[in-house]
Structures are given as structure tokens and as C-alpha cells.
Amino acid sequence: MQDAAPRLRSLVEQLLGAPLPLRVRAWDGSEAGPPAAPVLVFRNRRALRRLLWKPGELGLARAWVAGDLGIEGDLYTALDLLSGLVWERAEDARGPVAALRDPEVRAAVRGLVRMAGSPLPPAPPAEEVRRRRHLHTRRSDRRAISHHYDVGNDFYEIVLGPSMVYSCAYWEEGGTLEEAQRDKLELVCRKLALEPGRRLLDVGCGWGSMALHAARDHGVRVVGVTLSQEQAAYARKRVADEGLTDRVEIRVQDYRDVTDGPYDAVSSIGMAEHVGAERYLEYAEVLGALLEPGGRLLNHQIARRPERDESSYSVDEFIDAYVFPDGELAPLGTTVTQLERAGFEVRDVEALREHYALTLRRWVANLEAGWPRAVRLTGAGRARVWRLYMAASAVAFERNQIGVNQVLAVKTSGGTGGSGMPLRARTWN
Fold this sequence. Notes:
Layout: H1 4-16, E1 23-25, E2 31-32, E3 39-42, H2 45-53, H3 57-66, E4 69-72, H4 75-91, H5 96-99, H6 103-116, H7 138-149, H8 153-160, H9 177-191, E5 199-203, H10 209-218, E6 221-226, H11 229-241, E7 248-252, E8 263-269, H12 280-289, E9 291-304, H13 317-323, H14 332-341, E10 345-351, H15 353-369, H16 371-378, H17 380-398, E11 402-410
Parallel strand pairs: 1-3, 5-6, 5-8, 6-7, 8-9
Antiparallel strand pairs: 1-2, 3-4, 9-11, 10-11
Helix pairs in contact: 1-6, 2-3, 2-6, 3-17, 4-17, 9-10, 12-14, 15-17, 16-17
């Protein structure tokens, strides 16, 4: 008798105390739920065991990465529905101990345990990083960056496309991803007032796109630093291919070890998320010390919403275990405060939240179009990590659960307070 799906769906709804908005297909081929909804596919009983042993986001992620759990239909719709059911309800949940005092909840859990079979917890997928304390030492930062960025340049070419820019693009209606990324780089250059003869430090330079754009289109001399050996090798080849070795230097170097200032400008695009709360003031002070008086910093950074009690903030389990080990997000206000504490004057903040959602959807489309090759390059588990991470992030930006901002700050001149900024700053010249 094929009845696992209706039983599973009924027990899950009993446990959640709410209807499950997705259709369910179980390992025996049975289905239950709204006919038009995306289908949550339990390919085996192990998927259920993963959720029972680690309820919530990490259990779902492990089942997805291992291939035990899948989604058929529109992935974004499914994630949006799950976000509203699981993550938002979790904020108001009574907690596992209180919930288990409810006889109906205990009965539902017992029913799910019987369906799951073996009492032993499945091993985490090989792609999961062993959890550790967030130290943000030079060694731990190198290890975390290597996990995320040394997946292979060929893989990133599939996802990012020809621009090889791994940060939020700047969109106009009808534009391509490459055009939007070029416009973002140009926006950064204009905010930093780059012009021939000036010197730029690009912190977390990635595959060199910002450094190349600034040197080629604005005539500046650029030092780009990254902790990724693979990124540096790729960026150096691009620099050589464009004949810009006299203007662009790519280093494998921690930003804390840069000693050849002063610079006229610093760009930090999608790098500060790796710094960590305990190190953020140091990060801002180091960059400030590397700038000339009147020099500008463009800090492009993802932000989370502030907690009522900031001490209760915890790093996202899935992203910490599979995507950005040791990455931390801060509220925009915290970032601005730390920059000001380091002596910067914040002159402009531009929110690009919707732009990042659009960017992520294009990256997911690129990955899906190149799926067979991506799996050959990285393995099915790693490819599934990236598809889930980028699609879920797009939904989070669309739902205003996270944002991204460009903060322009200036190191004012000595005791005079001179900023060198135009009276109408939005002209960016």
C-alpha cells in the first residue's frame, strides 16, 4: 500500500500546527497535498531521519545537499512558502521542550520516528564544514576563503558569466548581467572619484574585474588583494592579457598585511561580510590608515536586519556549514557606527537590495543552464549547495530579510575637516 505521503503530510502538519503549503511525494511514489503547488520530494527515509535528528534549516540543507530531498516545480515559490512557514514561525515558536509537552506534538513525533526507520543519525554530507568558533585569525580566514572561492574558476565562469564579478550588479530595465555588472563597477569608480594618476586598493579583489575596470577605464594604478590562490592566478592572467601589468598588481595577501599606503581610494566589494563583528573596527581602522587625507572608502556589504536583542544573533547554520564558513552579517547601522568610530565620515548610503535579488536569479539561471558541466567540475553535492544558497538568498532579498548597501566614507583632512567632496555628492565627480 502506497500511503507514505499522506501519512507524512498529516504528521508534519500536526507537528507544525499549520497546513503544509507544498505537495509531498514520498519514497513509495505516493503524493498528497495541493495539486498545483511545488512538490517536496522525500526520495528515501533518510531524508526524514535527517530532519528528525536536526530539525530546521540545517536538517533541510543536509537532506538537500545529500540528494535525499528535492523540489519539483518552481524553486523560488517553494522556498518562499517554506520561508513563511518554517523560518518566520520559528521566531514565535515555543521551543522544542515546551512544544513536546503537547500530547499531539509528541504523538506526531513518534509517528514520524516510526516512518523514518533506523534510529541512527545519517552522517552529514561531505560538503559540510566542521563547525568551529569564529576566530577570524589570518589562518582561519584563509581556510574559510579557500573553502568558498577555491571551488574552481571554471565553475565560477558558469555561474557568474563573462563579467566574473561575484557581487550585486546594478540594473536597468532590459539590461544583461554583464551590462549590469559593468555599471556597478563604473558606479563604484565614480563614487571614489577615480582619475588618472590616482592609486586604488581593491580589498578582496576576486577575479580582478574591479581592478581591470578601474585601470582600463579610469587610468588609475591598482593593487588588488585576495586570500584565494585560484582567484589571484586567474586575475593575473586577465591583467596580462589586457596589457595592464604596469598598472595592476594582484597579491595573495591579507588586508591587514598591506603596508604600502597611502592610497587615494579603497574599494571593498562583498568582502566585509568575512571580517566578523569582533574584527570590524580593526578592519575599518586598517583601511583608514592606508588612505590619504581626503581619501574615500567604498564599502559594499550585505546587511541583516537588527535583532531586538543583538546578543541573540547567531550565524545562519546552512551558510556557515556549507557556503561562507565564519561569515557574519551586521545591521547597516552597526557598520556605519564602526566606520565612524574608526574616524571615517560617512557621506552616502545607497541600498541595492532589489538589485541583488535580480543578480542572484541570473546566477541561478546560469548554473541551471550549465548544470551537467557544473556537476562534473564540483560534484553533485556542491552544485546543489550553490543552487540552494543562491535561490534562497534571492528570496531573502526579495522578502527584505537581508539587504545590501554601498557606504561611501571619507577620511577627512586633519584638523581642517576637509572632505574634498562635492556639495552635491550624487553627481559622483
